[in-house]
Structures are given as structure tokens and as C-alpha cells.
Protein 1
Amino acid sequence: DAGVTQSPTHLIKTRGQQVTLRCSPKSGHDTVSWYQQALGQGPQFIFQYYEEEERQRGNFPDRFSGHQFPNYSSELNVNALLLGDSALYLCASSLVGAATGELFFGEGSRLTVL
Amino acid sequence: AQSVAQPEDQVNVAEGNPLTVKCTYSVSGNPYLFWYVQYPNRGLQFLLKYITGDNLVKGSYGFEAEFNKSQTSFHLKKPSALVSDSALYFCAVRDVRGGATNKLIFGTGTLLAVQP
């Protein structure tokens, strides 16, 4: 049973560039959430996708956008990168019908912006 | 507003001794509480959750947590610490606001260091 997989694991970008991060949810899961974890902080909710639509967005600017595909996989796009976007980006999957279920996290994509 | 607080940035304990990692919460309505662990350069791994029922919740790797409604706390415990338990621990509460399901609000984390 494959867990949540994310790619790439590490990447380095410069200010102003754009980045795309990818996530495949755990088998059987239909909902994907993205979190940003800055150094020394807890994960912060970016947004959640279900049925290819954004269900809720956290306190992040429009530079952060996402997409969910029919196979439930998801992408996180960040435009006009800032130094402060350097963080570990975590993808988490869950089942919408499991209202009290836990999130399953991937290993994360570590983004460094120079 | 839904929130959790982890008052200790770091907890140090000797191997074989009991450990406690503290968490307090603030929610409107019934709390759904979680503990996750993060090893260096890794994602988060689920340890345990409290939804309802028994105030003592047992989880993975010998960890347990005690839910205390009057003190609004959900402390993580283990009777005998192992060096391999050294990691970053996050308490989280489910946020029921908005359209997302299973959206979690995390604390700032507590680094557990177990000395041999």
C-alpha cells in the first residue's frame, strides 16, 4: 500500500522564479491538503483540494495556487518566489468520508529560495 | 478560535525514564486532538488521536495521551523513554471552520531529546 509520495524532495530556486511541487495521495484517499512548515515552526495550512476543487484556503497569498487531477494527485504552484517561501512543503491526504480520520503525510519537498 | 499550545520548546529525559510532552488546547465545541512525530528531514507520522470516549488514548510506539477537559490539556506520555524516541512532536486540533475536512491546526512543536 503506497503512502503519500511527493516530488521533488529538494530544490533550489532564486527569487522571482516559479516552482511546482507534486503529490500523490495514499491509495484510496480522495482529498489532498498542502502545508508549509518553516524552519522551527509547526505546519501551516495552505489549502485543500477535493473533487478537483479548492475547498478551503489558509492565510496565503494568491501566488500560491494548486490543482487536483482526476486521479486525485495534486500540484502546488508558487509564483514570484520570495526568500520567505523557503520551507518544507508537506502534502497530506485523507478520505473525505472519514470525518474524524487522521491525515497521512508525505516526506515533504524542501524548497530553498536564494 | 481553534488553537493548541505547546509550552515547552524542548524536553530532556534520560533513557528508561517516563516522559511527558505537554499540550493545551482552545476550541469551540468538542475537541478532536492529535499527536504527530517528525524525525529529522522527514514528514509527519501519526501517533494517536482523541475523538471521544476514554480519556486515556493509546497510540503507536508505546505512546499514550491523556485528555483532560477541565484543564483543556492533551499531554503525550510514555512510561519508559528510548533514545530512538528523540524527535520533534506536534500536537494538533481539528479545525471545523470552513469547507475543508480533517484540517489540522498544529502547535509549534516540542523537541524531545532522550539521553542514553
Protein 2
Amino acid sequence: AQKVTQAQTEISVVEKEDVTLDCVYETRDTTYYLFWYKQPPSGELVFLIRRNSFDEQNEISGRYSWNFQKSTSSFNFTITASQVVDSAVYFCALSEAWSGNNDMRFGAGTRLTVKP
Amino acid sequence: DAGVTQSPTHLIKTRGQQVTLRCSPKSGHDTVSWYQQALGQGPQFIFQYYEEEERQRGNFPDRFSGHQFPNYSSELNVNALLLGDSALYLCASSPRESGANVLTFGAGSRLTVL
């Protein structure tokens, strides 16, 4: 069975600090996809990144970076020089390849508060 | 280009009643998925519709049912509402190409059951 664990329920930082959101997953499949979504107060989940299980290269997009390590089943997300607009709930999610996106399993989310 | 639109945005029902939530997918998308997000939790998969048929279902009772129309829009129906059905109901759409496509989510319908 697939499972996603986000151990950090809430994180509070001051603007310009770097912050890392942790994500650990479990799956029996060898082919799977990992995602990060952002949920601002408006409620709409905003896609940030998708990674497949064969691509372990880290990725950087502006102030965002992702570290994927299959050896530890982790897919951590770092925001560099955080800003107040980064305040939101962030979800890590897993989808096994056989199901496509039919049954995406989300973690419980990490609420990030960035204070000015 | 409009994204995923959902209606109503908020609604209040009482136990035992029935509710219908509506979703219009993003232009170009033909697959619709529904998720339930309880307060403080991550979204949970309810079911997915493609070609007007339910293709896969999560661990939800038969009280939860759906429909997809020829224009790809979709409805989620919940019968015999329970207090525990109070949640944000999210609709997501995607194109049907194989693989784990990126889901585009709507802002949700917040249901409160009293």
C-alpha cells in the first residue's frame, strides 16, 4: 500500500529564512510519481512539481528546490529566502504508475507561516 | 482560459439530507477526479470519471456517487449525509493521456453538515 508522511505539521519562519519541508513515502511499486502541491487560503491546490521514480536528479526552480532520494524514500522541498507569499499548506503526494493519476495519495500537509 | 470551476463554493446541510456538487473541468481536459479534504488533512481520492463512466474508486461508501456529462462536466452526489461528511470537496481535471498527469484542481466546495 502507498503512504505519504509529512512529519512537520506546522513550520513558522521569518522572511528571508530558508525552510525545508520533509516528505517520506512508502510504495511497493518500482515505478511511481511524486508531487508537491501548494494550497493557499483560497483552497485551490497549485501544482509545483512532478518527479518520476527513475529521475533522481534534484531540481531547482527559482527559490524552490527539491531533493529526491530513493535510498531513503524521501522527496524534500526547500524554499530559499522565504517570502510572506509562501505562506500556505504544502502537500506531498504519490501516485503509482499502474493507476496513473487515479488514486493520488496525499500526505497530511505542512502549514508554513512566513512572518515579515 | 478558465481553470476548473466548482459550485457551490459553500453550503450547509443537515444530517440525512442529500447534496449535489458540480464541476467544470479545465478546457481541453476530459477526465475528472473528486477528492474529499477533511479539516487539517490531505485530500482523499473518491473516484474518477472518464468517458462518462466511473473508472476507479477510493475507499468511500456507496452514498457517494457521481456522474459525468458529454461535455466532461461532472457531479458528485452524497446521500444520507453524516456529520463526518463535512469537508472541502475538490474537483480535479486532467487530459486522458497515459501516465500520472498533473491534476488541475478547483477551489473546492465546502460542505458543512449540521
Protein 3
Amino acid sequence: EVQLVESGGGLVQPGRSLRLSCAASGFTFDDYAMHWVRQAPGKGLEWVSGISWNSGTIDYADSVKGRFTISRDSAQNSLYLQMNSLRAEDTALYYCAKGFGGELLSHCDYWGQGTLVSVSS
Amino acid sequence: SYELTQPPSVSVSPGQTASITCSGDKLGNKYACWYQQKPGQSPVLVIYQDTKRPSGIPERFSGSNSGNTATLTISGTQAMDEADYYCQAWDSSIVVFGGGTKLTVL
């Protein structure tokens, strides 16, 4: 059974940093692209970042480019999102999602339960 | 940047057919997929690669994609289908979501 478990969310002041983690199990982590998708309270889904199976292709939404960094660790079967210079508009539930294939350009067939990030002074 | 447009809301009577559209420039030349999200839950994939259903998704869910519009169709809509629905495609290496459609079954 595929499982994606996010952690690392919390309340943080504007301008500070936070690192999200996603522990993956139930599939061969090295074979699949992974994504972070967020959802602000009461709003729709917003893709944040994606990383291909071998980290060869990485991309970001314009809203986070230059502030967020995605990475993956095959030894730990884990996905990460380093978030710097956080802003109030980054407040959201952050989902980890598994790509259907190894490259970024696919749909997400499994989603975690999300971890909540709140940016406020 | 690429945009996908969905109607904010769609209403349907139980047992009837619901259609939710997703519009984008030359969307028919790309693959579209659809997610269902119920309150307090994570999104669930219901249609991928325009027309395919993941295992476990009822046959009443179907999809199409042509021209500038992808459509999610729910035949014989049930009360349990009431949810938010999001389309998704990609442009270059960027994943794009539609704004979402709230389906009300009444």
C-alpha cells in the first residue's frame, strides 16, 4: 500500500524558514517523480514544485521560485521542501504527491494527508 | 503562464448526469486529469490521461478532452459524489491546476 506521510509544518514568523519532509513507502521511490502541492485555507490546489525520479528535472511555481528548494533522498525514501523567506501568502496545507511516472509531466496518483504551514507574526 | 478555467459551481439532481468543464489554450493537445476532493480529505485521482479511470473509481466517472476543453462527466450522480473537482494539465515542465468546481447534488 502506497503511503505518503508529511511532517515539519507549524507556525512560523514571516521571513523565517521551515523544512517539510515526506516519508514514502509501498512503492519503489527511486522510480517516480514527486511533487509538493499546497492548498490555502478555503482555496484551490496550487502546484508548488516537482522533482523527477533521478532529480534531473526540478521546477517550481513562479510564486516560490528562488525561495523554496525541493530535494529527495533515495536512502531515506523521503522528499523534502526547504522553504525560506516565508510570507503570509505561503500559509497553506502542503501535500506530498507521487507522480504517475518518472518525469514531472504526469498526474499525481497518490497524495498524503498534508502538513499545515502557518506564517504569521 | 498557462491557465485552466473551471466553473465555480455545478448543480445536479441525484441520478442525473453532471458535466464539469475545464478550458485552456489547446488543452486537447495535452493530457488532462481530474481529482475529487471531499471536505477535510486529500484529493483523489478520478480520471487520468483524458479518459482513463484508476482502479477503484466507479464507471460512472468518465472524461474527454478535445479542442480547448476537457470535460469530466458523472453519470447517474450520487449524493456521495458531492465534492470539489479539480482539473490538471501541464505546460512545459509546470503542473497547472484549474480553480476547482464545487459539485452540489440536490
Protein 4
Amino acid sequence: GAGVSQTPSNKVTEKGKYVELRCDPISGHTALYWYRQSLGQGPEFLIYFQGTGAADDSGLPNDRFFAVRPEGSVSTLKIQRTERGDSAVYLCASSRTGAGGELFFGEGSRLTVL
Amino acid sequence: RKEVEQDPGPFNVPEGATVAFNCTYSNSASQSFFWYRQDCRKEPKLLMSVYSSGNEDGRFTAQLNRASQYISLLIRDSKLSDSATYLCVVNTNSGYALNFGKGTSLLVTP
């Protein structure tokens, strides 16, 4: 079925490098979310898009993290000057309308920063 | 104080047992409440929404106590396949995104 697709599934990079993670949401879903999950923790909210605009980016940890959704569909999470503490599974989710409705998650992108 | 707090467990129970998980949330203005299930190394999936009047879905019952800012999940007649992490979820201050608890780990044994 056409679920949420995330690429790459695994990414290993070196400290200080730049990384892009891509999310292709379910067709027709206007709301898109990025979460980060570390081992033994629940998903941590990063940013929420409604259409093309970031409606809530309060979860981005610092200015090294940035996300875009230029055409209101595919989104890219960008991490500059990666640090070892950025290692986690980055989960993307989409929702039909947002407003706290059901989130459909992708399988995640596992980022390892050496 | 974290916005959503859960006992991480693990809860180890035999097949057929009844088990209950609790969760507290800090934002009294929250309006949306859910339980998600996450299998090992998989993505979270919605288990059920939680309504003020309480709701039941087969062996699963969810309750909400707004006055105490407390949510519960009851699983009756546990199956081996219920083994997973159960995530308590509450909408954020902005109302758009969802805040997840740390999760409660359940292991059902034969």
C-alpha cells in the first residue's frame, strides 16, 4: 500500500557532516510531522507542516536543524554540522488534516553519527 | 516536568492476564488523547483514541480522567501478540502536534 516512505532507511555519517532525510507522505495528507526517537525513549516532536508552511517548529533542538516542504508533499529534514548526539531514528508521519488526528508513521531513517 | 509521563515497566505478565497502564499529562488544556503501540524496531501505530466517556475496543479499554489529568489502558485476556511498547499520546500546547510519553513495555509470556 502507499504508506509514508522515508529514505534513506539507514545513514552513517561523520561528525560535522551535513545530512538530508527525505519523507514522502501518504497522498492527500496535508499534515506532515517529523519526530526523533532515541533508544528507550518515546518519539520527540520536532516540527509540523500544514501544507507548505511550518505551523509549529518549536521542537527543533537548535539552528542546525531545518526542514522544508516546498510543494506541500515531500519533506526534507536537514541537519548541519552533525554531532554524535544527533544519532537517533528520525520518524516522519502524515495525517489527513492535522489537528491532533491519527498519525501514520514511516519506518524511519536511522542516523548514526560517528 | 515532562508533558506526558508513563511508567516504563517492563510489565511481564502471563497469557490470559489483565494488565493496566497509566499515564499522566501536564497540559490541562489538552484535548486529544491516544494510545499508540510500537513493536520492537518498528514505527508507532494507533491503537485507540481516548474519549472523555471512556471507550472499549475488544479486549482493550481506555479511560480519561480530566480532573486528575490521567489516562489509562486496560488489556484483558493478554495474548503473546500484545507484547510491545505502549505509548501514551497527548496533543501539544499548540494543539497541532502530538506529544508522546516514553512508553510502557509489555511482555506477555506463555
